[in-house]
Write a structure and sequence with these properties.
alpha+beta, Outer membrane efflux proteins (OEP), 2 domains, four-stranded antiparallel beta sheet, three-stranded mixed beta sheet, 10 helices, elongated
């Protein structure tokens, strides 16, 4: 495997450099990313709510006594002249409320795990695209650096020749204008690289370093979108994409919540046992009983109706998520073929020949065998060709990453 290492450019001179391959970046990302760490705690929080849903209601005990006995003239009387009552009660949930609450909590835990998976895939997609963006934009920046260095040498020479009256001021100013234009474009490009670098540092949690990607260009060039048919990619997306899985689980949660809300319409039963020392028709009365609410007014009608509509909304959202993911896979598949076809049709020797010709053009202009306009036109053509090539490579490789993201599988 051949790894291509880009030279550190000017913008990396004041920072430590972290040379890193995609596999190493993935490893650091999984260990260090703060968003993933926070989402893992959310999963633990949902599991704790599962435990809570499994718990039974606590028993309730009540004890009371008289404050003052007017006949005996005693405060808090006890014994034969006192009055003590006690009651122990236990709520019994009916209509399977506890089991339904447990299933609902388990579904919410599954949802938090899917959200973690979606976050992981989204951040990893961003990580990979940023790595390739930095790599190919740095190659484009190197083109600017070569041209700027050449024009700076040429401009200094023209200043000397202008002072001696050997060249016109117009020609010297035209070279300077081209130089300043290239420097401005170069700064814009560096800002794009710095933005991607900033995102990389956050994703990897490696502050104050310059992340220098190591890319196996032979492997990247050998990637082909024809390796898998479109239907295979779509089938994988339908089975594995987190958006579809979450939409299906949302529908399931809607059904569980609807069932749970209907169970809440059934009142719970309370069973109690009591003791009354002498406040009843006999002394030392022991009794047992049951209590239940009469569902005349509140039968949880509003919550049941709301859960019913939420269930229908989840079913429609599931269909929408399925259609959206299918369209995204198809769209990325078509775009990737366009980028890959354009890349394959390029003459492999063209860029190398162009670079040699660029160097020869610079020497020819220094020797005054070609004119200023031809020289500047060729420099613009060379620069634009290299920019287009690196942009095409970014679009192509991120297309493969997009298919991995939308299919939920590491196809490429």
């Amino acid at each position: 495997m051949v790894l291509v290492v880009l030279p550190c450019l000017l913008y990396a001179q004041n920072a430590d450099t972290l040379r890193i391959s995609q596999d190493s970046a993935d490893h650091i990302f999984l260990q260090n990313n703060l968003q993933l760490l926070a989402q893992r705690y959310n999963i633990d929080a949902q599991k704790a709510l599962e435990l809570q849903a499994k718990l039974y209601p606590n028993p309730n005990i009540q004890v009371s006594t008289a404050i003052y006995n007017q006949d005996a003239k005693k405060w808090f009387p006890i014994g034969n002249n006192g009055e003590i009552t006690a009651q122990l009660s236990q709520e019994i949930m009916l209509a399977g409320k506890r089991n339904k609450a447990v299933k609902l909590a388990q579904a919410n835990t599954s949802m938090s795990m899917l959200q973690f998976t979606e976050l992981l895939k989204t951040l990893k997609y961003t990580l990979h695209t940023d790595l390739y963006t930095v790599y190919y934009l740095s190659k484009a920046a190197a083109v600017y650096t070569d041209e700027i260095n050449s024009l700076q040498i040429l401009s200094k020479g023209f200043d000397t020749q202008l002072a001696q009256g050997n060249v016109s001021q117009k020609e010297a100013l035209r070279i300077k204008a081209q130089l300043y234009s290239l420097q401005s474009e170069y700064n814009d490009l560096i800002n794009q690289i710095n933005d991607a670098e900033s995102e990389l540092r956050l994703l990897l949690h490696v502050p104050q370093v310059f992340v220098l990607p190591l890319v196996d260009e032979h492997y990247v060039n050998d990637l082909s979108p024809d390796k898998y048919p479109l239907q295979t990619l779509i089938d994988s997306a339908l089975a594995n994409h987190p958006d579809i899985q979450m939409a299906k689980l949302n529908t399931q949660i809607g059904k569980l919540n609807y069932s749970y809300q209907k169970s809440l319409a059934v009142p719970d039963l309370s069973v109690f046992a009591g003791y009354d020392q002498q406040g009843s028709y006999v002394h030392n009365l022991s009794n047992i009983g049951v209590a239940i609410d009469l569902p005349f007014f509140n039968r949880n009608q509003g919550n049941i109706k709301s859960a019913q509509f939420q269930e229908k909304m989840a079913e429609i959202s599931e269909k929408d998520a399925t259609a959206t993911v299918q369209e995204n896979v198809y769209n990325e598949f078509v775009k990737l073929h366009t980028y890959d076809d354009l890349y394959r049709k390029r003459d492999k020797n063209f860029d190398g020949d162009f670079q040699k010709l660029q160097q020869a053009t610079f020497k020819n202009y220094q020797n005054r065998t070609i004119g200023l306009l031809d020289f500047l036109d060729f420099y613009d053509a060379y620069k634009n060709n290299m920019l287009q090539l690196n942009t095409l490579q970014i679009n192509r490789i991120t297309g493969f990453e997009a298919l991995n993201f939308y299919t939920g599988s590491q196809f490429f």
